Amino acid sequence: MELTKEEYRNFVEILKEELTPAFGCTEPIAIAYCAAKARETLGCLPEKVVIEASGNIIKNVKSVIVPNTGRLKGIPAAAAAGIVAGEASKILEVIAQVSDVQREQIREYLEQACFVVKALESGDKLDVRITVSAKGQEAVVRIARSHANIVRVEKNGEVLLDREGENCEVSGRKADRSGLSIEKIITFAREAEISDVQEILDRQISYNYAIAEEGIKHDWGANVGSVLLRTCGTDVKTRAKAMAAAGSDARMSGCELPVVINSGSGNQGITVSVPVIVYAKELHSSAEELYRALLVSNLIAIHLKNGIGPLSAFCGAVCAGCAAGCGIAWLQGGRLEDVSHTLVNSIAIVSGIVCDGAKPSCAGKIASSVDAGILGYSMFQEGQQFYAEDGIVSQGVENTIRNIYRLGAKGMCETDEEIIRIMTHCD
């Protein structure tokens, strides 16, 4: 297979759009960004803040620490950080620069202003609408469909931006993800000019490995990575799982280091890259070999998530961990057949893991998913595989991926609603 010039450019654009830096768990950061934009539109410090959010946003903000706030949690804390200290122009790095004085101001503002949190009963699974008011003035900002996608801005009833009806388009996106396939991804990974992707991947390697090292060295969350190393040894397989888990533990617990995300998620960005980096170090792979393996892992994760959507009851770590296994297979000489079997085998093992929000246990799910990705390749090396009609496995890797789309986007809708009811104590 050969890629057309248009297909090649599209793959590069996908990577540019998806592999962006973010500071903090992307759901609370989306709220902070929305709130910062609302304050900017209002033109003064709001006296009242009404935050309406979809169930999946509530689920993913409930238990995670908002960075640069002095370990505050929750929707009001994320909004207050954006209002007091946010720079809307920095988008998902909106609260990357917060002074000690501003941290104290965030706490004071939470006590002084009126915050109201409401669940959005209709709309997108990723949906935030913030209304701010002061001195008779009012501003409204809504983000939907992706974490930085502002679809509506109002001030005093005047509509300044309206993109709410553009259901299929996300602001700023130019690349078409519908043409992704494992065969095309492998072709792109083989043929890509490294200069076209090096800057993107260098940033991912630098940022994501740094937070993984921080997670191993210090006390973050449930310390899943450290537990793995102490109890399971230090072989490359264990290190790959441990480092990815450690990066998640640090991120979920408010570590003030940025990461490069994948499919809108920092945890997925860490999971899809760090295990591949660990294996590349162990195998003494060249820089070029690592870049091409990361192209495989990143794009396969994007392919999997594209049909599920950014938020679902289907755990995104599964997509990223299985994709990491494919990148590891590439590093060891695997190509289309090896990668396809690795993906099908690993998906068959861990596709039942559910997402119950962003929190320390994400690290454990990441470790399990990376383990499945590695096992999926080991099975293929040993001549073993899961066959069509084994559960959700179908003949051909793309058919199995379509089954995952159905499971994540449709089959788990009621599961998602029940998880949200459990987490919000709604009987």
TrEMBL record:
Domain Serine dehydratase-like alpha subunit: 171-420
Coiled coil: none
Pfam families, per the entry: SDH_alpha
Family: Belongs to the UPF0597 family.
Protein name: UPF0597 protein BEI63_15455
Species name: Eisenbergiella tayi
